[in-house]
């Protein structure tokens, strides 16, 4: 029989990535937590973590056990609420791709309405979100859907291309389609978190365009603000917009991203799909 406190120790290590922070969350000393994890591993007969000086990673057995541990802990919480005569308050942990427009995320939060459901928004790059899904640290991720990733249940929501973002006063702001060559003397802003950054660079360099880079940023809102201020132009997904910024197609740049939901292994897509926040994601998509 596995004691509940051992499950909490185990999940805390997953959530915090190391033993010291997990011990703080559980209000125990690190040696106490380490002894508990060792006891859990003896009980299960398998190592659950690879321990290194820098971080703690799940073993294959640990990743498999994490799916069940999440479900068990959730059921414990529901049972405690029921016995106490309190309505169970659900928490949905939603990962969100960092390159999704802030306005769209805000619309999702607003569309979920008032209710007992809690939502935890976890922003990250594509790789970060996949890692959190694998660890069971989020229930679903609103992210890129890749054809070569069939590990998780998925729900496609929308597709969008990539285009230019130009200052409103740019000489080419009235054009619907602009060739890379027409931007040869332009200053550019690099979105370092762009999923097609390498493809964007290749598109320009193969056409003999090697612009000066005035800024490099991982913050899309900042990139848009710099474009609006006239610092330069950039390439970004079509749904991004801001006052003072004009969007146009980049001729010959036909890359498209598919966005949707990936559901963690511990989550039931049918059940989670009825949550307020997932319904809001669909409505805003």
Automatic annotation (TrEMBL):
Residues 2-59 form the HTH lysR-type domain. InterPro entries: LysR_HTH_N, LysR_subst-bd, WH-like_DNA-bd_sf, WH_DNA-bd_sf. One of its GO terms (cellular component) is protein-DNA complex. CDD domains: PBP2_LTTR_substrate (cd05466). One of its GO terms (molecular function) is DNA-binding transcription factor activity. Keywords: DNA-binding, Transcription, Transcription regulation. Belongs to the LysR transcriptional regulatory family. This is DNA-binding transcriptional regulator, LysR family. It comes from Edaphosphingomonas laterariae.
